[in-house]
Amino acid sequence: MLMRSVPSSVTLRPVSQRLDEATERLRRPLRELVGRDGLDAHQVAANHLAWAVARAEAARACRAWSEETGDPLAGLVAEAAEEEALAHAEGRSTELGALGVEAAPAGHVDEIAAIGADVE
């Protein structure tokens, strides 16, 4: 049985704030390094930052979709996306099992695809 997750605003600092802080911790030193040595010298760090920002934006979109639909399964997808984005930005494993995401929605692809299908 899938249970609606408790909104992060109730239990933690808003995930978007935590993601903003994590990506800023990546951005600050990179800005200095690139300013000193040029971007080519720090391609790996720049790539990590770019993916961290992309994952954060995807997580925000998932959360907005979850809130718009009010669907418990969409809430689980958003939770998984947020945890994965935060883990990447913090340099932790992004494996869902390692993140402790409950009831990972991977086995519900058809149900997920149908969420909000009637909304235009």
Considering the chains and any ligands shown, give keywords for the structure.
6 helices; single chain; disordered N terminus; 120 residues; mainly alpha
Describe the structure.
The protein has 120 residues and is mostly helical. It has one domain. It has 6 helices and no strands. Helix 2 runs antiparallel to helix 3, helix 2 packs parallel to helix 4 (72-89) and helix 3 (43-69) runs antiparallel to helix 4. The radius of gyration is 16 Å and the shape is elongated. The two termini are 28 Å apart.
Which secondary structure elements does this structure contain, and how are they paired or packed?
Blueprint: H1 8-11, H2 15-37, H3 43-69, H4 72-89, H5 96-99, H6 109-114
Helix pairs in contact: 2-3, 2-4, 3-4
| Fraction in helix | 55-70%
Total of domains = 1
Please write the string of helix (H) and strand (E) elements.
Answer: HHHHHH
Radius of gyration: 16 Å
Percent of sequence in beta strands: under 5%
How far from one another are the termini? 28 Å
How confident overall, as mean pLDDT? 80
What summary fits the major beta sheet?
A: none
Number of alpha- plus pi-helical segments: 6
Q: Specify the overall morphology.
A: elongated
Q: Using DSSP, what is the number of strands?
A: 0
Structural class call reads: mainly alpha
Poorly predicted spans: 1-13
Summarize the structure.
The protein has 120 residues and is mainly α.
